[in-house]
Structures are given as C-alpha cells and as structure tokens.
Amino acid sequence: MPSIGERLPMSMALTHFAVGATLTTVLVTFVFSLIPYPRTVVLIGGGWAMIPDVYRLSPIAQNRLEEFHDSPWADLFWFHHTLDRLDATDSELIAAVSVVILIGVTALSEWYVYRQKVKGDGDEL
C-alpha cells in the first residue's frame, strides 16, 4: 500500500457520481418508490458516492481521511474503493459509459414510474 500523500490510481469523480446516482435511481424506483423528492435523493446518492474523496479538499485530518479513502470501508459509499481499483486508469471512457448508463437508467425509471401512475388511474395504455 502506498504511503500517505502518494496518489493511488483511482476512478474519476464523475464516474463515482454517475455510479452512485444510477444505483440510487434503481433503489428509488423499485424499493423506495413512495419516497418524496426522488430526483433530489438521486443527486444526494451521487454525492454520497463521492464522499471518500473529501480528503482532497479538507483542510483538517487530511491523512486520516485519505486512509479512509484507501480502505475497504470506502465501499460503504456506493463501492467507492472497489471502483477505484477497477478503474485505476482514471478512464474518460469509463466515465462516459457510466454517464450514458445513468441517462439510460433514468429514462427507464421515468418510463416505469409514468406507467405505474397511468395504470393506477385506471386508464388504458
């Protein structure tokens, strides 16, 4: 394991945000479908995935925060640690693909929620 301050290869912040928002979208659509403000919750889920990177901005406890970032505990934030290991090249392609997946999942979620509402109104599709 590299020493504190030595940058480990990791995934782009955009990738973390997109993965977190995508997984949150799936949960909000199929598990917690009655939650108020679902789009806000999705944005919070994307931000949640980026929390382990706060050590880069923090003026205090930077070494401790970086240790946490580099530990498996960071996986509590939408698999942050694992994603850093899988995308160790900071790949722009992986970031772009994860954004495309987020857009696709969001569109499917919107379609599904709309269909559920229409069915609930007793109208035929």
Write the SSE topology:
Elements: H1 13-30, H2 38-50, H3 62-69, H4 80-86, H5 92-120
Helix pairs in contact: 1-2, 1-5
- Number of alpha- plus pi-helical segments: 5
Q: Gyration radius, to the nearest Å?
A: 17 Å
Return the string of H and E elements.
Answer: HHHHH
Level of helix content? 55-70%
Number of strands: 0
Overall 3D shape: elongated
Assembly type of the chains comes to: single chain
Distance between the termini: 57 Å
Describe it.
This protein has 125 residues and is mainly alpha-helical. It has five helices and no strands. It has helices spanning 13-30, 38-50, 62-69, 80-86, 92-120. The protein starts with 12 loop residues before the first helix and ends in a 5-residue tail after the last helix.
